[in-house]
Amino acid sequence: MSLWALVCSLIPFELGQGLGVTGKYFLRKKTTVQYPEKKMEPTDRFRGMFGFSEERCIVCHACAKACPIDIIHIQDHFVELEVDGKKKKKKVLDRYDIDVKRCMFCGLCEEACPTAPVSIWLTTKTYETATYERNEQLYFTKERLQNWQGVSAYPGVLAPNAGMLPEDPMGTKPKAAPAEPAGKEGA
Question: What is the total count of domains within the chain?
């Protein structure tokens, strides 16, 4: 055993480092929030309650395939439509359910969604989904994912069916001006 190893084993340098970090925070002013009355605003990348838009969903099942714990359940069927004299098949969403009590909020479902803006998203700043009965209240159907029945939204956050966009849950960013049709240019 070398002399340095003997000194390191007798003097706990790691303990001193840990106590230094503790001492640094011990001398700072504490930040205490009176929770129900005052709520801290989550950061922009906070993964909160799911948002879902049935209008944007193309029923590709990519979110269900990307989910590592299989909590997204999707059922669909085909409907034949006649467009310009041709018969085309279109997928119609019958069921879109998420078992939130098992969700680990990894965001893989959001990353897998091919639509722009995405049809399923987690960046909603809403985190109050506490309930007394978890089996029914934490199993969200497509209707509950859109209107957030039984969920206390963060103040100022819109529900998905009220027009919340994935990149702007508070609705504070300015809306983009509609693009001019091609061929019509200003004089």
Answer: 1
